[in-house]
Known about the structure:
Order of helices and strands: HEEEHEEEEHEEEHHHHHHEHEE
Strand order of the largest sheet: 1-3-4-12
Bound molecules: flavin-adenine dinucleotide
Helix content: 25-40%
Distance between the termini: 16 Å
Shape: globular
Number of strands: 13
Amino acid sequence: MSGVSRRRLLGTGALTAAATAAATAVNASSASASPASATAAAPPGGAAASADVVVVGAGLSGLCAARDLVAAGRSVIVLEARERPGGRVYGMPLGDGTTSEGGAEFIGPTQDRIAALAADLGVGTFATYNTGKNVYYRNGKRSLYATDGLLGAVPPDWGVFDLQLALLSLGNMAKSVPVGEPWKAPKAEEWDSQTFYTWSRSNSFSNGARFLMDAFVSSTLSVRSRDVSLLYVLNYIASAGNESSPGKVDRLINTRDGAQELRFVGGSQEIPVRLAAKLGDRVRYNAPVRSVGVRDGAGAG
Ligand SMILES: Cc1cc2nc3c(=O)[nH]c(=O)nc-3n(C[C@H](O)[C@H](O)[C@H](O)COP(=O)(O)OP(=O)(O)OC[C@H]3O[C@@H](n4cnc5c(N)ncnc54)[C@H](O)[C@@H]3O)c2cc1C
């Protein structure tokens, strides 16, 4: 695929990169569309097909990569294991003709690429429901708090002062983490050698701050703080920024001015559905890729 390097290709994805096999033979079980121009994807019992690039997966990354390759004049086949596009972007039917998100749902400030993609596809946004007070539940006690104060979504636990210092440190450390290449951070090895739990215990003294830091990790990453490295969390914080605004924890957890600020009209799945529609029969469903081989000379085999 001259002129389009793999690195460039992966960089074009809106979010994390899909595995992409360029001019590489791909064994898909039952690709359900007509073959493309030459020889590559070969479902058992079906006709082989080929393209300049075979993209594995019709999630946002794979679809964006395919879109950019088509725009660059390349032939593309997208092999998707499921019967639908979108991957972790999934509209769950509610039974009345409407859907609600079963995966990615929100968009907020600094998420410029997905905003541009949605605008390009004609998918609008609306404000997330954010009326009334939040509920804070800790040690068997339930309390209500407003989120329009200085602390935003952070609950008024007395540990917040301790917490704010820790969050400040995290924000400063995250500034030295290159988004998508966290291993290039000057202290990558040191930060990747400890869990977030270890760091949070060494850098806070109150149970309230520790509880809230654990809640931050479990609610955003769906793991416990002892199961994820400090570097991973810093990369995640860094990724909540853009060229002009560094990432920070507040932006990740807030609705107002944060990552939960907006939703997509018609549901987030409108984005992959419309992207896939533009790619037409280049996208093949029910086509799980079982193996990827390399062929002498042609690069595929
Ligand atoms: C519950 C939840 C909530 C989220 N909320 C948000 C949010 O509010 N905002 C936000 O920005 N992000 C959110 N995300 C993250 C977002 O959904 C993902 O970052 C994004 O969808 C990832 O896209 P992707 O294309 O990289 O991967 P995926 O969506 O995982 O796509 C990968 C695709 O590859 C296919 N595939 C995998 N292996 C094979 C194979 N061998 N052969 C063929 N096909 C294969 C899969 O079926 C899938 O369709 C959320 C995720 C979850 C799970």
